[in-house]
Amino acid sequence: MEDMHEVIREYVINEYVEDDTEVTNDTPLISGGIVDSFSMVSLKRFLENKYSISIPDDRATPEAFDSVNKICTLVQEFIG
Amino acid sequence: MAYSDKTRGMYNGILSGLQEAGLFKQERFIHSPQAADIEVEFPSGSSLKNVINICANNYLGLSSHPDVVKAAHEGLDSRGYGMSSVRFICGTQDIHRKLEQMVTEFLDTEDTILFPSCMDANAGVFEAVLTKDDVMISDRLVHASIIDGIRLCSAMHDTFKHSDMDHLESKLQLHHDRRLKMVITDGVFSMDGDTAKLDEMAALCEKYDALLFIDDSHASGFIGKKGRGTHEKYGIMGKVDVITTTFGKGLGGASGGCVSGRKELVEMCRQKARPYLFSNTIAPPVVAGVIKVLEILSATTERRDKLEKNTEFWRKGLTEAGFVLKEGDTPIVPVMLFNAKLSQDVSRDLYQEGVYAIGFFFPVVPQGQARIRTQISAGHEIHHLEKALDAFTKVGKKYNILGKTKQEIIEMYGM
Ligand SMILES: Cc1ncc(COP(=O)(O)O)c(C=O)c1O
Question: Rounded to an integer, what distance in angstroms lies between the CA atom of residue B163 and that of residue B200?
Answer without folding.
Answer: 10
